[in-house]
Amino acid sequence: MTLNCHLRALCAHVPETVITNDDLAALVDTNDQWIVERTGIRRRHRLADTENASDLALAAARRCLEETALPARSLTHVLAATCTPDHLSPSIACILAGALDAGPVMAMDFGAACTGFIYGLSLGRAFLAQAPESRILFVCTEALTRRVNWQDRGTCVLFGDAAAACVLDSEGGEGSARVEDVLCQSDGTQRDLIVVGGGTACRYAPGDPVDDSFFISMRGRDTYKHAVRQMVQVCETLLARNGLTMDDVELFVPHQANIRIIEAVGSRLGVGAERVFVNLAEYGNTSSASIPLALAEARAAGRIRPGDRVLVTAFGAGLTWGAALLRF
């Protein structure tokens, strides 16, 4: 039996407030040249004090449902990938389902950090294999600036806030993309390389001040090595098991974390810069929202045409990594 999982109406949303490299230079010992040379990032977007990750998700989700002309009550599932939820509980998915008046859908969050979009595609395929009539609203939303230590120049320059939403179903339709294959992997022995704090391991009593364990920490050099190695490996494995090479891929959309990682992965896969989509300079690392935001921009810019095969890959805290093949 052929597994049909189609991605429809990929819509992104970013907050209006922009933080430039010069803005960061006023907060921490850094400058525009230093940031651009080491990361490729020039700007990033930050949610307002009155907004949360669920608000970004809701904006993207409403746009997605409007584009598909689907009523919220037609949904069967709401899935949310995030490592920066509003609360440990309730989930963003439940908050979103309630705000949309989606009714008694199955709603849940899951955490795979920057690999969240790819993990979500795998989950969506599994739900559709079980019940092909399912209609899944899938959102990736991150409020990473709420977990940034603005005194740590090694991490505060990297992250921005964003959300993206799509519908996964068996039907597809005009403008949709078929999820041809997905491969997700992890290595929990390297869990300390990237940590987003704020969970129950941060032991606070009422009135205690927040300490450094609340914020993002990352061992940059080790992360770089693992990211490049694992993204290359998972892409090669996914292509090989589908009888494909990079020559069969029209566009490569990697996780937008760092320009040096993107260039190293592209070089090792043998894909020219003209077939790699990069929007890192404008948004920074938006974790799970990174790839769907890039895909939405690539389509809007005409970089993805009907019939194109697109390879996406990501790497994140966990450690997690994965890749997916999409056919538009």
CATH fold node name of the largest domain: Peroxisomal Thiolase, Chain A, domain 1
Give the SSE order as H and E letters: EEHHEHEHEHEHEEEEHEHHHEE
Count every beta strand, where a strand is a DSSP E run of 2 or more residues.
Answer: 13
Radius of gyration: 19 Å
CATH superfamily heading of the largest domain: Thiolase/Chalcone synthase
The CATH C-level class name of the largest domain: Alpha Beta
Low-confidence runs? none
**How many domains make up the coordinates?**
2
Strand order within the widest beta sheet: 5-4-6-7-1-8-13-12-11
CATH architecture annotation of the largest domain: 3-Layer(aba) Sandwich
Largest sheet: 9 strands, mixed
Percent in helix: 25-40%
Distance between the termini: 21 Å
Q: Can you count the helices? A: 10
Beta fraction of the residues?
15-25%
Structural category is alpha+beta
What average pLDDT do the residues reach? 96
What's the shape?
globular
